[in-house]
From TrEMBL:
Keywords: Glycosyltransferase, Transferase. It comes from the Bacteria. This is Mannosyltransferase. It comes from Thermus islandicus. InterPro entries: Terpenoid_cyclase/PrenylTrfase. SUPFAM superfamilies: Terpenoid cyclases/Protein prenyltransferases. GO terms for molecular function: glycosyltransferase activity.
Amino acid sequence: MFGLEWLRVRTDARGLLEHARGGLPLLEEGYTTDDNARALLYLALLPPGARDPALVRTYLAFLLYMQRQDGRFRNGLSPEGRFEDEGEAEDPTGRAILALAAASLGLDPDLRETARFALERALGVAERLCAPRAQAYALLGLLALREEPFRELAHLLGRRLRQAFAQAEASWPFPGPLTYANHRPLEALWAYARAFGDGEALGLVRRAQGLLDRVYFSGEGAPFFDPVGNAFMSPGEAKPLFDQQPIEAKAAVSFYLRVGERPKAELAFLWFHGRNRLGVPLVDAFGPMDGLTPEGPNRNRGAEALLSYLLAWQALVQGPFPREEAP
């Protein structure tokens, strides 16, 4: 399976390396919780016979190593095994919770137990998450675990996310500037609303979706996915056209599948394969590239780009995670 081969090349005994060029990992760049959590999520959602057990154990062990006693997850690890932060950023903890939730449902029994242990240790810090994207990652993971205390915590995070969207201005119905993975909070709020029967939250998602649809798609006759560039976009500012990131396509694929708009999800995926602003493919035999610059593809091939592509493809084939739970 091509995804596993790409992962094997970029993984050593510690974990998935953060950066690569020409299909070869850059050993001096180290590792992140963000990337290893994405990799574990991807493997946990594959059918059991399609996984690589050694990779599963490597990525799960990495998350265990990066977790502090208080439940937070550090993000950066140097090539020498030195922690590069103490978990100040919230997104890595949210991503780890999402991956551990999938692992606690989909892996072999012994690994499920290990993933559940790390997940339960993270519940206290999950309750204190403030960043919308961190809340979104954690919320999607918790919604997959339908027993208590996970469901109660999902309800809490969903209400907080709903409040953030409710406080947004009507002229800019999104909590803050458009930065990265902007469809992810919308997806999480939609999943929460469907799980708990919250009609107000569904309305807030549709209101914010109107903004993202206008910003993220271009071309009247032949529309194409055209995400916000890496300079980001605040209300009243012009949309930055470059450098477009793979994480945007992945987040959009999952959201549009979640809300039943598959044609838009397919357009977002085709961004990787040349249906983009420059008409150039961003994937070849060495894997996905890091983004779209004014001069063409960014030839670096980081783990984020790789997992964004694999998770987007997986969502198109298998559907988004978690499966929708009707109220």
